Amino acid sequence: MNKSKVFQTISWFFIIVFLAITVFPFFWILISSFKPESEIMGAGSYRIIAAAPTLENYITVIFKKGMVRAIGNSFVISALTTSYVIVVASMSAYIISRFRFYGKSILMGLILAVSMFPQMIVIGPTFNMFYNAHLLNSYWVCLAYSTITLPSAVWIMVTHFKQVPLALEESARIDGCSAWEVLWKIIFPIAVPGVFTTAIMAFIAAWNEYMLSCTLNIDEKIQSVPVRLSYLKDEFTIFWGQISAAAIVVVIPTLIIVLLFQKQIVSGIVNGAVKE
Amino acid sequence: MVKRMTFKQFLYIVPLLAFIAVFSIYPIVTSFMYTFFDYRTNDQQYNNFYFSQKLNVKLFLEDCDYVNYFLDADKTLLSVKDAAAVDAIEQKVTDEKAKYAGMTGTPTLSNAQSSEISDFVKSLRQETLAIYDRNTGIEFYNKENMPQILDDMDACIIESNFIGLRGYAELFSDTRFWLALGHTVYFTAVSVLLEFVLGMLLALIMNKAMKGIGLIRTAALIPWAIPTAVSAMIWSYLYDGSYGVVAKIFADIGLIKSQTAMLLTANGAMSSAILADVWKTTPYMALLLLGGLQIIDRGLYESAAIDGAGQVKIFFKITLPLMKSSILVALLFRTLDAFRVYDLIAILTGGGPGNGTESLSVYSYKLMFGQSNFGYGSVVVTGMFICVAIIAFIYVKVLGAEVMSNE
Questions:
Q1: Which residues, at least 6 apart from A44, have a Cβ–Cβ distance to it below 8 Å?
Q2: Cβ–Cβ under 8 Å, residues A61 and A251
Q3: Taking CB atoms and an 8 Å cut-off, how many pairs form between chains A and B?
Q4: N or C, which end of chain B is more exposed by having fewer CB within 10 Å?
């Protein structure tokens, strides 16, 4: 009895420390985002409550530093990526989970290998490819995101498609459904929770991508959120208040996504990594 | 009942194969090809792949025209005898031009042809110089221009930039590569170890199904879900030498000598990067491990407790062995992820101070996009690729032989 009390106390202590450390950076940028630059740089830089709170940082970041446009770009690119990843991954997962074929384990190994190799190895040739095709600074960058999104999408989808009972599919086949109809009318709707998980994971991966995006889409008009934000630092003076405000602007949608979809995200993390 | 795939069904995986082929396999193979060339995109002599000597015909013919044009202008100032010599030179240039006039693009040159061209340019240089030297009194229009155009003609012969394995030889003597490898290994080992220990603790606690677990899970997911670039920016503010609150706290409690030590010393910057990575990824590790923990039958714990096993013993004798495969997977994923770290270091420290935190990814990116040296940059990436393959091999073979074999 006593022992489990001790264990509980230690657990709670650990959790409180963990939560404090996790939340602290967000807390600090939140309060900094309301401070005028003079308070961030000046004597009051460690004060918690701003002496003269202001919304100026938000106004600058949103209207003058192109954060809104960057969020729009990121949203379009991530949505495009998610859409084609779902279609391509569904089709492949259907075949992988339902049929046996020569080279299946090679294919699965290949998919796994693609998700593991350093992305830096594709960046040079991918840049040249986009340069030669005149696709730099465009939404086409979403195609290059396939190396970071497709492998785990296929992986998660296969896990979920396997759980769809074969009997349903067989009776549909007897009723005269083609394989194409079976996939989209039977399996896909049943596996919707899995599809949803896949979509969220692909969306987050595309939203967070930095390296490809900062190489292929350099033009300010087409920059994604992470790239735009990193450019705020490269300017001559660093305005931490603006950076804080921009970070808050980015964190809020993330927070909403996490609150709404945390079940799917957790399942995506676990399934994406668990072996076939 | 699993059926054999027919051709029609094969079409379903064609899009996947196409994506992998175009955006993964093709770039990898091409990258590998780059390693055998001195390939630099900012230099006309090196921005393509030449196995043999080539001639830039268009430029060469243009240069010939320029030589004659310059000579025509200067000829008017010369004596009859020297003008006749210039005529002879012009005739030679015209003859030379005729030899290559039919060609287009960058045709391959045989050794004989290339030495013929360089001899031609050499004699042109001597002869024109001789005429200019004989007439020091005359103010020529093109005395200065002539050597420049002749240099330009020399550059029309594009040497082969095929270097075979020399790029790899350079890698072995490149101390910056080995330092970057050292930084990467250090970063990976320390951050993955910390994340594993902390993630395990967190997973064990979360598995106890206490009140408020949902809140903890939400809080844990946010650092993972925000872009690394954003968290790197947040941390670079917190670590700032003048206004950063975390740097200030660390300096006040004596962890670092002064507030500026956080990002402006190599050790401080490396620790900063590791700390930021641990902050961001521990929750991910915890969730992966929690997935493994939840598979374990709770009955096992109960019977072990009845048999009188303590918490610690239960953890080491039951929990850990049963979680072996999920631990392996979590560690493998995290190790490879940490090994290719780019965003965090590029934004937080830029590889500095004094290359003190430069990871392999950052180094190769700087080579490729900072110096336009795609050839050697690809060699560094290939070195990194080999390291990744070795890491994966060790995990799979040494630790996970039985995990993989029961597939």
A1: A35, A50, A51
A2: no
A3: 260
A4: N
How many angstroms away from the CA of A54 is the closest CA of chain B?
19
Q: What is the CATH number of the domain that holds A69?
A: 1.10.3720.10
| Domain hosting residue A101, numbered range | 62-273
CA distances B85 to A223, A241, B77, B91, Å, are: 62, 75, 13, 10
CA B281 to chain A, closest CA, distance in angstroms equals 11
**How far apart, in whole angstroms, are the C-alpha atoms of residue B48 and residue B41?**
8
Of B279, B311, B388, the CB nearest to A118: B388
Q: How far is the C-alpha of A246 from the C-alpha of A232, rounded, in Å?
A: 9
Which sign, positive or negative, has the C-alpha torsion B377, B379, B383, B385? Answer: positive
Q: Is the pLDDT of residue B365 over 90?
A: yes
What pLDDT does residue B397 have? 78
Tell me: pLDDT of A168 over 60: yes
In a domain, A82, yes or no: yes
DSSP secondary structure string, B145-173? HHHHHHHHHHTTEEPP-B-TTHHHHHHHT
Average pLDDT, chain A: 86
Is beta strand A99-100 parallel, antiparallel or unpaired with respect to B3-4? parallel
| Contact assignment for B226 to A251 by CB distance below 8 Å | yes
Determine the straight-line distance between the first and last CA of chain B, rounded to whole angstroms.
18
Q: Which residues of chain A are within 8 Å of residue B243 when distances are taken between CB atoms?
A: 40-41, 45, 240
Nearest to A275 among B231, B283, B329 (CB): B329
| pTM of the predicted protein model | 0.86
Residue B352 DSSP label? -
DSSP A187: I
Quick check: ipTM above 0.95?
A: no
Please enumerate in sequence order all residues whose Cβ is within 8 A of that of A121, keeping only pairs 6 or more positions apart, or say none. Answer: B27, B28, B31, B378, B381, B382, B384, B385
* Cβ-count burial A215-254 (b if 16+ within 10 Å, e if not): bbbeeeebbbbbbbbbbbbeeeebbbbbbbbbbbbbbebb
Within-domain flag for A24: no
Quick: pLDDT tens for B281-320: 998 898 888 888 888 877 888 888 888 877 788 888 888 8
Token pair listed for B40: 């630099």
Do the domain assignments include residue A120?
yes
Please count the structural domains in chain A. 1
Question: Is A5 domain-assigned?
Answer: no
At residue B400, the pLDDT reads 59
